[in-house]
Amino acid sequence: MSSRHNDGSAGDANYGIIGVDYAKYRQPDPHIAEFIRSALGAAGTVLNVGAGAGSYEPVDRTVTAVEPSASMRAQRPAHLPVAIDATAEKLPFADDTFDASMATFTVHQWSDLKAGLAEMRRVTRGPVVILSCDPDELERSWLHAYAPEMIAVEASRYPALTTIREALGGETEVVAVPIPLHCTDGFGEGYYGRPERILDPGARLANSAWSFVDLAVGQRFVAELGRDLENGTWDARYGRLRSQPFFEGSLRLIVSRP
Fold first, then answer.
1. How far apart are CA 181 and CA 41, in angstroms?
2. Contacts of 45 by beta carbon, 8 Å cutoff, 6+ apart
């Protein structure tokens, strides 16, 4: 397992740097949250692994949150439980402790994916619910035309869905999650119809892929997108997205039941 960053981040991204205003830009989206709630079923006790600032944690269940980054733990709102400092690969719980477990936008950060998923399965009696992105579908976004280097980084970091399914075992299904136009969770595709928003440096900082590409890529992205928004090129190509209720992008929910 790789060593942690200064703030405790155990994955490839240093959330001591990129997670400073993470919660400001990455608010849970109600439409996406409903998919997770449904997948958790009647579970009364839920483990949230790589819990971050608490996005998508159900408030009507007893939740135990695990998060190695001190920066992210500090951003958890007061109404959510304090997160335990631990990693997916070594969960400090007995077998079959929880009715269900969940992990959202985090498995691509883990240093040992199979170990982390095996640990989730070990401590969970019922469904294991993973929200992630299909790396084979990331090029569907217009972002690929402006920052192919960033999309390539994302595709290399997100694990293949078959890898997740095989590691979890049991009865596993993959559900496509359409992204709503006014998505409150500011991951890249969440801005599909609001391109101006992603010109904000904070919005890009809250998407870890940007921290893995050269600074010049972000500068070029801002210059070219800003120019195309001003002269109408973006709208000529993608303007229909501004009023498209949902975008079928790369977002997927993987649900494994024993």
1. 27
2. 61, 62, 63, 64, 97, 98, 99, 100
Residue 6 lies in a domain: no
User: pLDDT digits over 160-170, tens only?
Assistant: 999 999 999 99
27: three-class secondary structure by DSSP:
coil
pLDDT in tens, 87-139: 999 999 999 999 999 999 999 989 999 999 999 999 999 999 999 999 999 99
Pairing of strands 128-133, 251-257: antiparallel
Number of domains comprising the chain: 1
Does a structural domain hold residue 110? Answer: yes
Pair 195, 221: CB distance under 8 Å: no
Would 7 be classed as within a structural domain? no
Range of the domain at 147: 15-257
The enclosing domain of 207 has a CATH number of 3.40.50.150
